[in-house]
Inverse folding.
C-alpha cells in the first residue's frame, strides 16, 4: 500500500480505537454499565443515577485524560522535532517541572484562583524550555547536553516545588496529588481553560505543520529553503510549552507521555508529513491516557492507583528500550 | 551573480572570514579550496545569508542580501550544507520540500510544484525510489535526493558544501557531470571541495582560502602557477604524467611528519 494511503488508514484505525477506549472508560468502574445503560444514562442526565455518575465523574475524567494525552503527546512531537532529539520530551527537558513549580507558586501565593493555573503552568513550562534550550545551546546543543541540562533544570524546579511545600504546608496534600499525577476529582469547569489552550495549540500546530516539516530537515537546510529558523523554533517551543503546561495544570506531573506516544506513532507511520504525525500522536496520546486511567481505576479497585505511577511503570522500560535501540542503530 | 565586498563574519565574537572580495559568476563553477578550518563553510553561509557579516556585504544580482527576506534569498540561492539530517520521510517528500520557498500560506504544494519535483527526481534518476524512506537509501542515493531537492528549488545560484564527502568515485564523477549541467544552464555554481584534483579538473575558477582570508582567485592554471595551493596546504605539487592522462599530486614538504602514537 502507498505510504500516504497507509498512513490515512492508520489514522482512521486509531480514531476508531479512541472511540472504543472512550466507551470502555465510560462503562468500567465501581458500577459497570452496558452500552444501552450508557446511552440511557447520557440521555437522562442528572435525573438518573447512571447519568450523574457519567456526567459528573466519568465524562470529566475521560475528557481530562484525552486532553492531557493530546497536549503532552503533541508537545512531545514538537519538542523532539525542534530539538532534533528523539529522547527529548516535555518531562525530560524540564517542561513539566517548570509548569509544576509555577502551579505550586500559584497554589501557595494565590490560593483558590483555579482559572489562572493553566496560564501559570504555561509560563512555567515556557521558562523551563527556554532555560534548557539556552543552557544546551551554550554548551554545544548536542543531544546529550540537552538531556543533561533538562535533568539539571528539572532537578532545580523540583527543589523549588519541595521548598514551597516546606514553607507552605497547606499546599502539601494538593502537591502530593500533583506530583504523582492523575485525574481524580477533576471537573468540567477546571478543564475549560486548559481545553481552550490545548485546542488552540493543536490548531496552530496543524497550521504550521509544513514549517515543522522543513524544520525537521535541520537548521541549515531549513534556512536554505527560506524558513526563518529562529522564529519558528521559538514558536514551536512556545506551543509545546503551552500544550504541556495546559495538561500539567489539571493532571499534575505526568512524565513519559510526551516521550512514549510520538515514538508509538513513529513506529506505525511510514514517512508521513508532520500534519499526519501530529494528528496520529494526538489520537494515540488521548487513547493511551484514557486506557491508562481506566486501568489505574480498575487494577486495585476499589483503591485507585494514581495514573502517573502507572505511566512511570510503562514509561521507564520504554525509555530504556529506546536508548538501546538508538545505540543499536548507530552501530548498524 | 554573487558579489562579496570586503566581507568579514563568523560566529558571535569569533570572526572566521576576513575581508573577502570576490565575484561569483553565472555560467561558471567556482571551487573553494583550503585546509580544514580555513573558513570555507563559513564563507558559503555568509554568501547564502545564513550568517550575517560583521563587515562588508553580499550582493545577489546587484541587490544586497541584507535588503532581501529569507524567502527572497531562498528563491535566488540554494545551499546544500555539508552535514544533513536523515528525516523520517520519503524521497518524494524531501524533493518536494525544495519547492517550499515558492509557496505562500497555507504551504500546500501545487500541481506545478509536484511537476517540478517529479522532473528533478527523473533527472537525478531517483524517480523509481520516490516512495522509499530516506533512511533506507545508500549514501550516494541520499545525496542524489538532496541534489534533486536543490534542483526543484530552481535558483540561479547553487552552493554546495563538500558534496563529495562519503561518495564513491562513480557517484563523485556523476556529481561533477551534474555540476557541469548546472553551469551549462547558466547557473552560478559554487562548491567547497577537498579533492584538489577534482577541483582543478571541474572548476572554471578556483578560490584558495587560508586562515579565513582569500589568497587568490583565478583559473586552475593561474592558481597552480601562483603557488597559492602549496602555501595554503603546506605541501608541494608536482605534475605527473601517466598513461593517457596527467594529474597533480601533493608532495610532502621538508620536515613534514605524520604524527604517530609512538615517539
Amino acid at each position: 500500500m502507498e505510504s500516504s494511503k497507509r498512513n490515512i488508514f492508520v489514522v482512521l484505525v486509531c480514531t476508531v480505537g479512541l472511540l472504543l477506549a472512550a466507551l470502555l472508560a465510560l462503562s468500567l468502574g465501581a458500577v459497570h454499565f452496558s452500552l444501552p445503560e450508557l446511552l440511557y444514562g447520557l440521555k437522562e442526565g442528572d435525573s438518573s443515577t447512571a447519568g450523574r455518575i457519567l456526567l459528573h465523574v466519568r465524562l470529566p475524567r475521560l475528557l481530562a485524560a484525552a486532553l492531557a494525552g493530546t497536549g503532552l503527546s503533541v508537545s512531545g512531537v514538537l519538542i523532539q522535532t525542534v530539538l532534533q532529539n528523539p529522547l527529548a520530551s516535555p518531562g525530560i527537558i524540564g517542561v513539566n517541572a517548570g509548569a509544576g513549580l509555577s502551579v505550586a507558586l500559584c497554589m501557595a501565593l494565590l490560593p483558590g484562583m483555579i482559572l489562572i493555573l493553566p496560564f501559570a503552568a504555561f509560563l512555567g513550562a515556557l521558562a523551563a524550555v527556554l532555560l534548557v534550550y539556552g543552557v544546551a545551546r551554550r554548551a554545544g546543543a548536542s543531544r546529550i547536553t540537552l538531556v543533561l541540562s533538562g535533568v539539571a533544570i528539572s532537578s532545580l524546579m523540583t527543589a523549588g516545588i519541595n521548598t514551597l511545600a516546606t514553607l507552605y504546608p497547606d499546599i502539601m496534600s494538593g502537591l502530593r496529588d500533583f506530583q504523582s499525577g492523575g485525574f481524580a476529582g477533576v471537573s468540567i469547569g477546571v478543564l475549560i481553560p486548559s481545553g481552550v489552550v490545548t485546542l488552540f495549540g493543536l490548531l496552530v500546530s496543524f497550521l504550521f505543520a509544513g514549517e515543522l516539516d522543513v524544520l525537521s530537515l535541520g537548521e541549515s537546510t531549513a534556512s536554505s529553503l527560506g524558513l526563518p529558523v529562529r522564529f519558528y523554533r521559538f514558536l514551536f517551543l512556545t506551543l509545546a510549552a503551552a500544550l504541556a503546561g495546559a495538561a500539567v495544570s489539571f493532571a499534575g506531573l505526568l512524565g513519559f507521555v510526551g516521550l512514549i506516544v510520538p515514538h508509538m506513532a513513529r513506529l506505525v507511520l511510514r514517512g508521513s508529513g508532520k500534519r499526519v504525525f501530529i494528528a496520529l500522536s494526538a489520537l494515540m496520546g488521548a487513547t493511551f491516557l484514557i486506557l491508562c486511567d481506566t486501568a489505574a481505576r480498575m487494577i486495585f479497585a476499589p483503591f485507585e492507583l494514581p495514573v502517573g505511577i502507572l505511566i512511570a511503570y510503562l514509561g521507564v522500560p520504554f525509555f530504556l528500550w529506546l536508548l538501546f535501540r538508538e545505540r543499536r542503530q548507530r552501530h548498524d | 551573480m554573487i558579489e562579496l565586498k570586503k566581507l568579514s563574519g563568523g560566529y558571535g565574537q569569533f570572526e572566521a572570514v576576513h575581508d573577502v572580495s570576490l565575484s561569483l559568476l553565472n555560467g561558471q563553477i567556482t571551487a573553494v579550496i583550503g585546509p580544514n578550518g580555513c573558513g570555507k563553510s563559513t564563507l558559503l553561509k555568509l554568501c547564502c545569508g545564513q550568517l550575517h557579516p560583521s563587515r562588508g556585504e553580499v550582493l545577489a544580482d546587484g541587490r544586497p542580501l541584507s535588503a532581501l527576506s529569507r524567502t527572497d534569498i531562498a528563491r535566488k540561492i540554494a545551499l546544500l550544507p555539508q552535514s544533513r539530517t536523515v528525516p523520517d520521510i520519503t524521497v518524494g517528500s524531501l524533493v518536494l520540500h525544495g519547492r517550499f520557498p515558492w509557496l505562500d500560506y497555507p504551504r500546500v504544494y501545487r500541481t506545478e510544484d509536484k511537476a517540478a519535483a517529479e522532473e528533478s527526481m527523473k533527472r537525478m534518476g531517483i524517480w523509481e525510489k520516490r516512495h522509499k524512506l530516506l533512511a533506507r537509501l545508500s549514501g550516494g542515493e541520499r545525496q542524489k535526493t538532496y541534489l534533486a531537492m536543490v534542483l526543484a528549488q530552481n535558483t540561479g545560484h547553487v552552493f554546495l558544501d563538500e558534496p563529495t564527502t562519503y561518495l564513491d568515485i562513480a557517484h563523485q564523477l556523476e556529481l561533477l557531470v551534474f555540476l557541469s549541467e548546472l553551469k551549462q544552464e547558466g547557473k552560478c555554481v559554487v562548491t567547497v571541495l577537498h579533492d584538489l584534483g577534482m577541483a582543478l579538473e571541474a572548476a572554471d575558477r578556483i578560490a584558495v582560502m587560508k586562515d579565513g582570508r582569500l589568497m587568490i582567485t583565478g583559473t586552475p592554471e593561474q592558481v597552480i602557477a601562483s603557488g597559492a595551493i602549496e602555501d595554503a596546504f603546506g605541501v608541494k605539487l608536482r605534475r605527473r604524467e601517466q598513461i593517457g592522462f596527467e594529474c597533480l599530486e601533493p608532495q610532502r614538504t621538508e620536515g613534514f611528519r605524520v604524527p604517530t602514537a609512538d615517539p
